[in-house]
Write a structure and sequence with these properties.
Blueprint: E1 9-18, E2 28-41, H1 45-53, E3 60-65, E4 76-80, E5 91-102, E6 108-116, E7 122-123
Parallel strand pairs: 2-7
Antiparallel strand pairs: 1-2, 1-4, 2-3, 3-6, 4-5, 5-6
């Protein structure tokens, strides 16, 4: 089996962790649970049309190998080391859709539909 070209950058899929101390100011941080390389996918007109009908916006579609951990809709994503990166520590997105597929090389992959966050979270390493 050939290797799928996933050389666009690094993706970290994260959960939100609440680090608020009792009586303190709310403090949520991102904690990565999956790190791997991704391939950037083009956003098709049909995908854009469906998102517009649901009053959503698609900012990015990334493809990752299925390594046995399925990302969950509603989780958060940090993309880094890719063309178009806007923030030094990576760009943050919300994961809006996870589509399991088999690519042309026979590899099991996930296509992840992402929308850019307006609020940035601190990252817990």
């Amino acid at each position: 089996m050939e290797t799928t070209a996933l050389d666009s950058g690094l993706i970290q899929i994260c959960k939100i962790i609440d680090e608020t101390k009792p009586g303190g100011k709310p403090k949520e941080k991102l904690t990565p649970y999956l790190k791997c390389y991704f391939g950037e996918r083009s956003i098709s007109y049909s995908r854009q049309y469906m998102a517009a009908g649901a009053n959503q916006k698609i900012d990015f579609v990334a493809r990752i190998l299925n390594l046995g951990t399925r990302p969950k809709i509603g989780d958060y994503v940090i993309l880094s080391f890719y063309d178009g990166q806007e923030n030094e520590n990576g760009d943050q997105f919300r994961l809006d859709n996870v589509q399991p597929l088999t690519d042309d090389d026979g590899n099991k992959v996930f296509d992840l539909t992402l929308s850019r966050l307006e609020k940035f979270y601190e990252i817990l390493e």
